[in-house]
Amino acid sequence: MIAELGCGNGADLAMLAAEGFSVVGVDRSPAAIAEAGKRISQQFLYRQDLREHFPIAAHNASAVIASLSLHYFSVGQTEEVMHRIRDCLAPGGIFLCRVNSTQDVHFGAAGHRPVGEGQYLVHGQLKRFFDEASARSLCDEGWDVISIQEKTIQRYALPKVVWEIVARRAV
């Protein structure tokens, strides 16, 4: 089973399901879950904040994807979420994520108030940006890092600089 955290409209889940993978999607937005439900069965979708208990059984996922969904939390909350991600993965399971880079054009969150190192309050929501050290720290405990790369991707029709991390849950 592949779990996507912050599944949005479910486009990636639908593609994976079409290739024969079992999928589960989690998103805190009711609108996102409704859109995803048009692509895959609602029984595989959960509306939930990632800071809460995961709906995925321990050691059940072969892979977890979190593309641009882990930068909305404080450092401590992110560490807790990472422990939950590791716990839901089977030993040797793969974790793939993307997080905002400090090299992104939105770094500094377009003039919003800083509330910590690389952290800004944007319309009442924390937004975090990662340098290489903080990106690497996501996989400090219980992970075998396969790759950490800073990349430019296309997001919302604009270039966006992210850290892309691929890691394996340590056995």
Automatic annotation (TrEMBL):
GO BP, one annotated term: methylation
KW Metal-binding (keyword) present: no
Entry keyword Kinase: no
Domain Methyltransferase span(s) in chain numbering: 2-93
Gene Ontology molecular function: methyltransferase activity
Pfam families from the UniProt entry: Methyltransf_25
Keywords from the UniProt entry: Methyltransferase, Transferase
Protein name per Swiss-Prot or TrEMBL: Methyltransferase domain-containing protein
